[in-house]
Design brief:
Elements (H helix, E strand, L loop, with lengths): L6 E5 L3 H12 L3 E6 L7 H4 L3 E2 L10 H12 L5 E3 L4 H13 L3 H16 L1 H11 L11 E5 L4 H13 L4 E5 H7 L9 E5 L3 E2 L3 H15 L2 E4 L2 E7 L2 E6 L2 E5 L1 E4 L5 H7 L7 E10 L9 E3 L4 E6 L2 E10 L9 H4 L1 H8 L15 E8 L6 E4 L6 E5 L9 H12 L18
Helix pairs in contact: 1-9, 1-13, 6-13
């Protein structure tokens, strides 16, 4: 008689949790996916849809210190800090600044590169198996510039090229030939040729979830209220009752800090609140377009054009400041010849706010818990949750099943904070 498959709970059904569930079920485990809100909600639903494998440089960049004061006083700026939250976020910022030190930055860049290098290939293989290839468009992306000196952008291109990123520095004419709807104010661009985007992040999550179910993954909509390890089992207390599993993967995004605190782990996780504004008309763009100066991104979606980006530090549960979303329209008008019309009344169907789960070193936590034998983590992916979904799931599958992971996972271990 064959051995009974081990049971695993994956807590959190965002893009990371779904990928972990698929990878584990494919390894022969019996997987239950648990989420209090449903499948593919939160940042998995509202992100910019950009598979941003070019983003190998940590957010903790010394150059940011010079730019930050100007950004903070600009009402259309890419970063906002709610005044009443400043002292609460200060410890996180101090850790963030520490990561700007050259040795830390070099180490974190190398670790990000390792994850990003395999990210698209992992999705290609997964989406082929799931018959969902339509949700990955490999058409590259552009970062456009209006008034940055040509030499400065050339240096930026070389920095990426030296890091192994495929990028072309395009003139104004070359840029407009690729995207004719860009405004004449655009003077140049960086063309990242090997990245991709999805026309609907939410449908991508739902399609992968359907594939997970076809493999045998079970889903429960419930809130986990407590987690306790008993010898070789892990007990979960949920709003739908108590359950016991052989192993548990925590993939709870921004909620991970509270979950791990209860288990005795310190996690300097901060909510980088991002916004999007949906324009329900044809985009007249063929790939994601980011602005080098304005720090926002436009992505053509199945339902129109999504304007996204910006960072707000105000705490996870603060009321949304919808001006952070509607201001993106002014930026879009500045960089496009023809901008889809803004509805006379912008309602909740066009607006979104979500909390990116960000750690000071821009690296996720992936791997085995250090204080528990049957507990694993896949969380804290900051701006790269969509991008790193498939590679994270693949690594968790390898780690949990006792295989040698294809990457050195030491840089992502929870031990760096504990």
């Amino acid at each position: 008689m064959a051995d009974t498959p081990q049971s695993i709970a994956v807590i959190g059904a965002g893009i990371i949790g779904i990928n972990c569930a698929i990878a584990l079920q494919e390894k022969g485990f019996y997987v239950t996916l648990i989420d209090k809100d449903g499948v593919g909600e939160g940042c998995s639903k509202g992100n910019a849809g950009h598979f941003a494998t070019e983003q190998v440089f940590p957010l903790a960049d010394p150059a940011l210190l010079v730019q930050l004061p100007k950004m903070l006083v600009d009402p259309l700026g890419p970063i906002a800090i709610k005044p009443s939250y400043f002292f609460k976020v200060l410890p996180w910022f101090l850790r963030f600044c520490w990561q700007m030190k050259k040795p830390n930055r070099q180490k974190n860049t190398k670790a990000l590169q390792a994850l990003n290098e395999g990210a698209i290939a992992a999705y290609d293989a997964l989406l082929t198996r799931a018959d969902a290839k339509q949700f990955l468009t490999a058409n590259g992306s552009l970062v456009v510039y209006e008034d940055t000196p040509f030499d400065t952008v050339a240096k930026e291109a070389k920095k990426y090229q030296d890091a192994g990123i495929a990028v072309q520095h395009l003139t104004k004419e070359q840029t407009l030939a690729l995207e004719p709807n860009l405004a004449d104010s655009i003077t140049q661009s960086l063309f990242f040729t090997d990245v991709g985007h999805t026309i609907n992040p939410y449908q991508l999550s739902l399609s992968l979830f359907q594939y997970a179910k076809s493999l045998g993954v079970h889903f429960e909509q419930a809130q986990v209220t407590a987690l306790k390890e008993h010898q070789e089992k892990v007990e979960l207390r949920t709003t739908q009752g108590n359950r016991s599993f052989d192993k548990v993967v925590v993939s709870t995004g921004i909620d991970s800090k509270n979950v791990l605190n209860k288990l005795g782990y310190k996690l300097p996780l901060e909510a980088e609140r991002g916004y999007h504004l949906e324009l329900f008309q044809e985009a007249k763009l063929s790939r994601p377009i980011a602005s080098g100066e304005r720090k926002f991104i436009m992505t053509p979606m199945s339902q129109g054009l999504r304007l996204a980006g910006t960072v707000e530090f105000a705490g996870q549960h603060a009321t949304a400041n919808w001006q952070r979303a509607t201001m993106l329209y002014q930026h879009a008008k500045a960089v496009l010849k023809e901008t889809p019309l803004l509805p006379a009344s912008v309602d909740e169907s066009a607006l979104w706010m979500g909390c990116r789960p960000s750690l000071p070193d821009s690296l996720p936590v992936i791997g085995k818990a250090t204080k528990h034998k049957q507990l694993y983590f896949a969380l804290g992916h900051q701006h790269l949750g969509l991008t790193l979904g498939a590679i994270t799931g693949k690594l968790i599958g390898q780690i949990v099943s006792g295989e040698q992971p294809e990457l050195d996972i030491r840089p992502y271990c929870i031990s760096r904070f504990n």
